[in-house]
Specification:
By secondary structure, the chain is an alpha/beta fold. The strands form 2 sheets. A 6-stranded parallel beta sheet has the order 4-3-1-2-9-10, with helices on both faces. The protein has a 4-stranded parallel beta sheet with strand order 6-5-7-8. The protein is globular and about 50 Å long. Bound molecules: D-glutamic acid. D-glutamic acid binds next to helix 4.
Length: 294
């Protein structure tokens, strides 16, 4: 076992995870499963969610500010759980956080999709902003130029998942609108693999299968990232689950029940702290804006 790997798993500092809000908890759940014994700080930007409808520049400014908050808390790694932030800001956050490693969702999900696809036809379901960024498409094509890749923006699914409408008429109608026609195409054009390129979409797996068909393969980006970290930085020999500190930028009381739903826990008393990103010093704001527009 390389010494560097032993050092990472036994380094007592927490792993920092950030997202635009609650959705990243699906990623946190996978991380806790694949990285036992690790402590986490989860930071959700509930004051400024959604990111999926925002411009690249705005998402970069937000992502850099969240990463700085985690670095200030001495994390040993940053996981960008939000797909929209991963699509727009992974390189920038990586440059800013070095030497702390940064893991975004795109590269691990692309690895998983390449392993998964049988016929080389991949559909990326994501927010509007992620689809516009085309990071998944670019990275997939770079790895295999023969792949057929399509992206479909499915912003409404974010709200449905947060509402807890994981199945039923409304959710199926929304999915039918977004992807129904694609999955009625002939066998030789329709996708065989879907990248669930948004934090919320793993919650809708069953409904997606109903519309896309049982044979379609689903790539869960949070799970792909967790497996990638376990492989690259493991082994993680401890069996105990680590601790999680939850932080949000607004509305703790709204976050708590949603968090319990996403994490599958019934602890209404989940400890959640609030931080105020608007108090960032003017000089810091200028610096963030400058590096985000480079
Ligand atoms: N976390 C976002 C993502 O994975 C979804 C929610 C949002 O639009 O902020 O892209």
């Amino acid at each position: 076992m390389p010494i560097a790997n032993r050092t990472f798993a036994s380094d007592p500092r927490p792993i920092g995870v950030f997202d635009s809000g609650v959705g990243g908890l699906t990623v946190l759940k996978a991380l806790r499963e694949y990285l036992p014994g690790q402590d986490f700080i989860y930071l959700g930007d509930t004051a400024r969610v959604p990111y999926g409808t925002k411009s690249a520049e705005t998402v970069r400014i937000y992502a850099l500010a969240l990463a700085q908050q985690l670095l200030d808390r001495d994390v040993k790694m940053i996981v960008i759980a939000c797909n929209t932030a991963s699509a727009h800001a992974t390189e920038m956050v990586t440059a800013m956080a070095a030497p702390v490693p940064v893991i975004g969702m795109v590269a691990p999900a692309v690895d998983a999709a390449l392993d998964t696809t049988r016929r080389g036809r991949v559909l990326v379901m994501a927010t509007q902003s992620t689809v516009l960024a085309q990071s998944y498409e670019r990275t997939l094509k770079m790895r295999n130029a023969a792949l057929q890749v399509r992206g479909v923006p499915c912003q409404l699914l974010v709200a449905l998942a947060e509402e807890g409408w994981l199945d039923g008429k409304v959710t199926e109608a929304a999915l039918e609108n977004y992807i129904g026609a694609i999955f009625r195409e002939p066998e030789n054009t329709k996708p065989d693999t879907i990248i669930l390129g948004c934090t919320h979409f793993p919650l809708l797996k069953d409904a997606i299968r109903k519309v896309a068909g049982e044979t379609v393969r689903l790539v869960d980006t949070g799970e792909a990232a967790a497996r990638f970290i376990a492989h690259r930085y493991g082994p993680f020999p401890e069996a105990r689950p680590g601790d999680v500190q939850f932080l949000v930028t607004d509305a703790v009381e709204r976050f708590r029940p949603l968090a319990c739903r996403f994490l599958g826990c019934d602890d209404d008393a989940l400890p959640v702290g609030q931080i105020d990103l608007t108090t960032a010093r003017p000089a810091e704001k200028r610096r963030l804006r400058k590096s985000a527009t480079k």
